[in-house]
Amino acid sequence: MDTSQLLKGVLDLAVLAVLRKDDGYGYDVVRRLRAGGLNDVGDASVYGTLRRLYNAGMLTSYVVPSEEGPHRKYYSINETGRVRLAESRETWRSFASTLDGLLEEVAA
Amino acid sequence: MNTQALGVEHYLAGMRAALDDLPPSEVAEIMEDVSAHVAELSTELGENETLGQRLGPPEQYAQELRQAAGYPARTERLPVTTKKQLLGRPRVAAWGLAVATGVTLVAGTAALREPAILLLPGVLLVLSLALVHDRGPTQQEIMNLPETRRVQQWLTPEAGTPADRALTYLKSLQPAWWLVRAGLLGLGAVLLASRDILGFLVIAGIAVVSVFAGPRAKVDRRWLWFSLPASALAVGLLLQVIDTTADNLGYSSSRQTYQTPVMQGYENIYAYDENGKLLTNVLLYDQDGNPINAPQGRYAYACTGSDPQPMIPANRYPRPEIQYENGTCYTVAPSMTAPSSTESTPPSSSGSAPSSSVPPTSVSPSK
């Protein structure tokens, strides 16, 4: 199964999750997601997701100057984002266990 | 390195084109993220790898980003928006900044006489910055204008060329210029202090803020609305100070020429032979045979007036000078009466010859 299709629905959750500990700029978030095992995550999808979460008021951003090249825009999760992360995690857990249950039945 | 930079620019231009139906402020935010991303990626590229191979074509990148961000699907740009682009806020703001900087330079040359003139560029700057202040610190839209790009191309010559080295060197001088600029502005403020306290406060304020504005503008391009005109003002003030100083010098030197004895002190003529001997009873004529008459000062009057001597031709030199004590006319040696300036010394003999050959006290009767 193509994981990129699955990823689309949960990329919000994944991005909020990696920003929970540390602020990060776009490419940094991409790297952390890949390091976490989401190898198929597309750069553009992550940047789009960051914009969407930002426009939805779950992230704040600030610019850090860079010695060489353009400045980096860091995103950090705010309270709204944390609340959404907690909610989404619950939703995901129940969804995943439901699906696990279904899959167990099929396997049995 | 330069081809990579070119590749980055090309890629970003493609992205911008693919996003240009979105609100400009949103495009600016996206491009802020993406330009950093693409720039960082380009440093990781292999020898023959292109950005397109790594990320897919810019249109595809833009499309994926749109979907993830929840933007509406790409719509064709309407002709109306093209018209808007022609005179969009970024362009008006950029030209406003350029014009205001130019005006500040000119106004700066008059700021010490009339500080209120700085209000004009000031208003221009506030208005043009207000147009784009909400477009973020990188002002990507302005950077994307064709005219801005052309300027940028000029400012990024190929690496290793003399132009590149010169620019790199000039850039290294930038912090020094910030200090010099603050100094020049401070000087302007001080020169104004005695006449215009408000002008003093304003320019002194600009001087202080300008120290921080330089480095800030590196991070936040909106500071350019302060930093560029501040530089222009500093240069304008410098030009004015130079101009005033040169004027003063010119004025005093022209006064000096007026003081030379050509007009005022030229009342008598002393002719010497090549041995430095004073010649008396010399008659001077010009090329037309007209007698050369020095303006008549205290010399000729005295002997044609009360003294019943035969008439002395006005062009006979040296003219006798009256001795008031006994009412007799004498020809007095130049060391006593004629100025010792170079004009009166004979060309063939040394400057000191006349005074040494004719003792200062020697007085010969003119008859």
TrEMBL record, chain A:
<protein>
    <submittedName>
        <fullName>PadR family transcriptional regulator</fullName>
    </submittedName>
</protein>
<dbReference type="InterPro" id="IPR052509">
    <property type="entry name" value="Metal_resp_DNA-bind_regulator"/>
</dbReference>
<dbReference type="InterPro" id="IPR036388">
    <property type="entry name" value="WH-like_DNA-bd_sf"/>
</dbReference>
<dbReference type="InterPro" id="IPR005149">
    <property type="entry name" value="Tscrpt_reg_PadR_N"/>
</dbReference>
<dbReference type="Pfam" id="PF03551">
    <property type="entry name" value="PadR"/>
</dbReference>
<feature type="domain" description="Transcription regulator PadR N-terminal">
    <location>
        <begin position="15"/>
        <end position="87"/>
    </location>
</feature>
<dbReference type="InterPro" id="IPR036390">
    <property type="entry name" value="WH_DNA-bd_sf"/>
</dbReference>
